[in-house]
Specification:
With 297 residues, the protein is mostly helical. It has two domains: 156 residues, no CATH class; 140 residues, Four Helix Bundle (Hemerythrin (Met), subunit A). It is 79% helix and 0% strand. α6 runs antiparallel to α7 and α7 packs antiparallel against α12. The N and C termini lie far apart (47 Å). The model has no long low-confidence stretch (mean pLDDT 89).
């Protein structure tokens, strides 16, 4: 159980779910295109992403809390980190060779470097760690477009392929915004612990009250993006629009309202859980939108 916590098992499930739902709830329902990766190769893409993310969680947790608190010797913990990270990169290289785009290995190498430097350096830097984690979250969605859609441009309807790629890009942008929001809430929740560890998070640097207001501003951006997407793309899709209003925008508004009265770590922990639920429902929304489009066709 400690090992599952060490590698962030719950977050890994959420990552794998998001990537699988894009494949089997969206991409497989697009008419007239043959994706660049078969189901087996796509599963390897998810596996590589999960292994790299697991390595990132592991190195973060052992640098923050020590490997002994998870029942592991430090050298063993670093061997596991190396195995997960190198394994993910090897699978990533294999996939880039399959699609003939070895330069796309950067899509795996950037998260590896970012997660490592976050754990060893960026966590002590004001906001840089939050931004780094948010970008990695967005890249975990964008990588789907890199490996499945981008390489087949020219082999299908270019307008349709561009629209699919645009959808993936919009979801990755929204993932960055949600990632920034959830990491700021995490900092607010852990202010006292981070202060004792000598970290320089936003609440420590400017105080909880001001940090909560900045977090509120990020939440407004998230809510604004939801409203923009609904108005721009979903006005004719009643089921999808209702889903986003209830399961995505509703919890975000709940978080915004309660940010003004949140004071304790428990208060911020509840809001963090709410936004993590929003991340889950956002992932699921692509399947809801696809179903709504097909049912109207």
């Amino acid at each position: 159980m400690k090992f599952l916590k060490l590698i962030g098992f719950g977050h890994l499930i959420l990552l794998a779910f998001a990537q699988f739902i894009f494949k089997y709830g969206f991409l497989d329902y697009q008419p007239g295109i043959i994706l660049n990766l078969s189901d087996g190769y796509y599963n390897l893409l998810v596996l590589a992403s999960v292994m790299i993310a697991a390595g990132g969680f592991l190195i973060n947790n052992i640098t923050a809390n020590g490997s002994e608190s998870y029942g592991l010797n430090e050298s063993v913990a670093f061997y596991i980190y190396g195995a997960l990270t190198i394994g993910g990169l090897i699978i990533g290289y294999f996939l880039t060779d399959i699609i003939g785009r070895t330069s796309f290995l950067m899509a795996f190498a950037i998260p590896v470097a970012t997660l490592y430097f976050y754990s060893t350096n960026l966590r002590q830097s004001l906001l840089l760690g939050n931004i780094a984690i948010a970008i990695v979250m967005g890249l975990s969605i964008m990588i789907i477009g890199f490996f499945t859609v981008y390489p087949v441009f020219g082999n299908g309807d270019p307008v349709h392929l561009a629209n699919i790629y645009e959808v993936i890009k919009h979801y990755s942008i929204f993932a960055v915004a949600l990632g920034l929001l959830v990491t700021l809430l995490n900092d607010l929740k852990n202010t006292d612990l981070d202060y004792n560890e000598g970290l320089n998070t936003l609440p420590i640097a400017i105080g909880k009250e001001r940090a909560a207001k900045i977090t509120f501003g990020v939440g407004i951006i998230v809510a604004g993006l939801v409203l923009y997407y609904i108005n721009a793309y979903l006005k004719e899709l009643l089921w999808a629009m209702g889903y986003l209003l209830v399961f995505v925008l509703g919890p975000v508004i709940y978080c915004l309202i309660n940010l003004w009265s949140a004071k304790t770590s428990k208060d911020f922990a509840v809001l963090e859980i709410v936004i993590k639920a929003v991340i889950f429902f956002t992932s699921l929304s692509i399947a809801v939108i696809t179903f709504n489009i097909n049912s109207n066709a």
